[in-house]
Amino acid sequence: MKTFRVALPALLCLAALPAAAGDLAPCLERLRPQARAAGIGDASWRHLDGLERDASVLEALDYQPEFRTPIWDYLAGLVDDERIADGQARLLEHAALLARIEREHGVDAATVVAVWGVESDYGRTFGSKALLRSLATLSCEGRRQPFFRGELFATLRLIQSGDLDAAGLVGSWAGAFGHTQFMPSTYARIAVDGDGDGRRDLVGSIPDALASTANYLRKSGWRTGQPWGYEVTLPPGFDASVNGRNARRPLSQWLSRGITRADGKPLPASDTPAALLLPAGKDGPAFLVFRNYDAIYSYNAAESYAIAIAHLSDRLRGGGPLHRAWPTDDPGLSRAQRRELQGLLLGRGHAIGEVDGMIGARSREAIAAEQARLGLPVDGRASQRILAALRTPPAAPSQPPAE
Q1: CA dihedral in degrees (342, 347, 351, 354; nearest 10)?
Q2: What is the pTM assigned to this prediction?
Q3: Any bridge partners for residue 275, and if so which?
Q4: DSSP state of 358
Q5: Where are the domains of the chain?
Q6: Higher-confidence residue: 20 or 179?
Q7: Is the pLDDT of residue 199 over 80?
Q8: In a 10 Å sphere around its CB, with 0-12 CB exposed, 13-18 middle and 19+ buried, how is residue 266 labelled?
Q9: Using CA of residue 371, residue 377, residue 381, residue 384, what is the dihedral sign?
Q10: What is the dihedral of CA 236, 239, 244, 246, to 10 degrees?
Q11: What CDD domains does the entry give (predicted)?
Q12: Which of 129, 182, 251, 287 is the most exposed place for a label (fewest CB within 10 A)?
């Protein structure tokens, strides 16, 4: 679950940091009266004893990455065959639970499981940052300290109430954690007890996490029984100047302008408000989206994220891939293909770490080096073109002629 967008250049972040690293105790001592006023007892506050500043979360806070992920790369990794198969297995495994959640909260099983799959790969990846350390650091330094203090205090109250165990609590650099990556303040407001044990444990309880996700979507305006939207086809010469999530028109108006569903099924001529999305422009896939898309978007305010959730939910229901290709001659890679690419980079002597399908800085540097060697455009991007090039074994060194 996203908190806010990073915006300032890295140099501003580094200039703002104090020279001394290490101990957070002086800052936390100054925050103690605020914590007491927020209802946090001494025993709960002691979970912060001995914490040291984590410079990496400060870099993440203010660092504007140069590497931008095209939407076709983003979806290639998030809506791949592995995640679809795993999600369909989870639908069967938790069918009774998901049916109960749908009765209680009105959100269908495929959507709930799609959020779970994108946020934590169905509980496999919760994040790697020590949660209290991250939030304590961000409460004392950098931008938005008041925001992060609220999240720190919310986490401590959740520990104090017995909903969470402090030991081993990890999450994202910004403090999102659990199966579906709630921020602590959202956890406090939205989480529900899905297994009836008296706790709201989004880390250790799948029923709690999935029920809480459905509750979040319901409170964000989810409308039971309605679709999130459809992939659509634009007629030749279509004027797409009116598009975007906030440019809503009655569905009948879009129909009158020649828009049709990409799967050939009829669009109802209704007054339901719909928005036209063109995430890659007129040459890429187009979507008409409804109120339920907005509920998904509220979970993480990024168009590519919401489309990934929506499309994955369709695939989990048995739908097929998008009908129109993305406007690129070099598509992105699935996670299996990313792992293959990393293996090929290791085989060529690049020290990129383990093969995990996560394309980080070292993998991108190695890709850029290979692109330069092969005479390809150098952008460090993991794509079909570089994968195909590296699948070709390197030429054996020429042997000198025999004398």
Answers
A1: 50
A2: 0.88
A3: 248, 289
A4: -
A5: 229-316, 335-391
A6: 179
A7: yes
A8: exposed
A9: negative
A10: -130
A11: Slt35-like
A12: 251
3-state secondary structure 218-267: HHCCCCCCCCCEEEEECCCCCCCCCCCCCCEEEHHHHHHCCCEECCCCCC
Query: What is the C-alpha separation between 284 and 130, in angstroms, rounded?
Result: 40
CA 57 to chain centre: 17
> 229 — alpha (psi -120 to 50), left (phi > 0) or beta?
left
Is residue 213 within 8 Å of 178, Cβ to Cβ? no
> How far apart, in whole angstroms, are the C-alpha atoms of residue 87 and residue 319?
13
Tell me which DSSP letter residue 182 carries: B
> Is 18's pLDDT higher than 50?
no
Tell me if 178 sits within 8 A of 145, measured CB to CB: no
Residue with tokens 């990890």: 170
| Pair of tokens at residue 36 | 């007491």
Supply φ then ψ for residue 366, to 5 degrees: -65, -40
| pLDDT tens, residue by residue, 83-107 | 999 999 999 999 999 999 999 999 9
Q: How confident is the model at residue 400 (pLDDT cuts 50, 70, 90)?
A: low
Phi and psi torsions of 230, nearest 5°: -140, 150
Q: CA 84 from chain center: how many Å?
A: 16
Quote helix, strand, coil % in the chain, to nearest 5: 45, 5, 45
